[in-house]
Amino acid sequence: MAKQVAIIGAGASGLISIKCCLEEGLEPICFERSDDIGGLWKFTETSGHGKTQVYKSVVTNVTKEMSCFSDFPFQEDYPNYMNHAKFLEYLRSYAKHFDLLKYIHLKTIVHSVTKCPDFSATGQWEVVTENEGKQDTAVFDAVMICTGFLLNPHFPLKSFPGINKFQGQILHSQQYRSPEDFQEPTRSLCKNKIYLYKYVFPSNLEKPTMAIMGHISLKGALFPGIELQGRWATRVFKGLCKIPPTNQLMAEATKKEQLIKRDIIMDPTKEKMDYITYLDELAICIGAKPSILSLFLKDPRLGKEVFFGPCTSYQYRLTGPGKWDGARNAILTQWDRTLKPLQTRIVADFSESSAVSHWLKIWGGASVLFFAVLLVYKVHEVNFV
User: Fold this and answer.
1) Membrane spanning segments where (predicted)?
2) pTM
C-alpha cells in the first residue's frame, strides 16, 4: 500500500509537492482553504483572512526560463517577465498537464497536525481538517507544509526609530492591493528563525516525515529550489534517501547558531543563499546533478550550453531519478523561447529586394577578395624590386 502524504496548501509549492509524490509512487492528498489553486498568485480585490496575495500591478522579476519547473517550460510566446494573471495561467496549465487537480481538496481548513502516539516508531501524523463545517481526522505517513514563509505578516516596528511619532498609516504588503490610495506604501517583512536540515526537515523530529517547503531565500529563482526540495523530500519519505539522526542534526544546529552569533558564518534568515550551490547540493542528494565533463565528452553541444549558459532547472532532469527525455531539447531551445516574445514586429518579405541583397553580398565578397589578392600581388612586386 502506498504511503499517504498530507500536503497543506495548493499554491506553487503544493502543486510541486503533489507531482513529486506521484513520481515516487506516494499518495498525495492536498488541502487548500480557498476555493482555487495558485496560492499568493491568485489575485483578489480584497485582502485579509490571513492569506497573502500579490498586489494588482505585480510583475515577476525573474525571467520565465529561470523560474519554470524543470519538465514544463513556459510557452514560447509568454513574456519573459509576466504579471500575476499570466503566471497563474502557467500554474493552471501545469496542474492540468500532470493531472494534479483531482488530489486537491478545496475549501478545506487544516486545524492541526500532531504526532501520533506511536510517532517514534511509525513517524505518522494526525491531521484534523474542516470542510463546510464538518471536521475530519485522518492519519498520514508524512506531511508537506506548503504555506510558504510569506503566510503571516510580521511587523518589526521596534526596528524603526521614531515610529511612535509617525502620523500616517502603517500598512503591511499583505494588505496592499493597488496604489490608488497610497503614494508610499511601506513593505515590511522578516523571516522567523527555524532550524531545518538543508532548509527542509525539522532537526528535532525522531522520524523525517515532515517537510517544510519553500522556506528559502535564494539569489535567483525560487521555484527550481522548491522543486528539488520536493524531489528530495519524497525520496526521504520513501526511504530511498537518508538524513543524519536527530541528535547529530540538533548538534549541528546548535553549533551553527553559535557561529552565526560570532559572525563567522552568515545568518540564512537574513542573507540569500547562492542559487547554484543550493540546487547542486539537493541534486547530489537525489543523484540528479549532471556531470559537466561527461556532457562535454558525450554531447559537446549540450555540455557547452550547460556550462556556459544559464543554470536553468532543465539540467536537473538530464540524469538520475525523474529523468525527462525532453530536458536536452529544452536546454538547447531556451534562448529561442527567450527571444520569441521580443519578436513582435512583422517584416514583409520582398522577394525582389531579397534577391538584390543576395547579389550585393556576393559582389561585395568578390570585391573584397579581389582587392586582397591585388594587395598581396603589389607587396610581392615591391619585395621583388
Assistant:
1) 359-377
2) 0.79
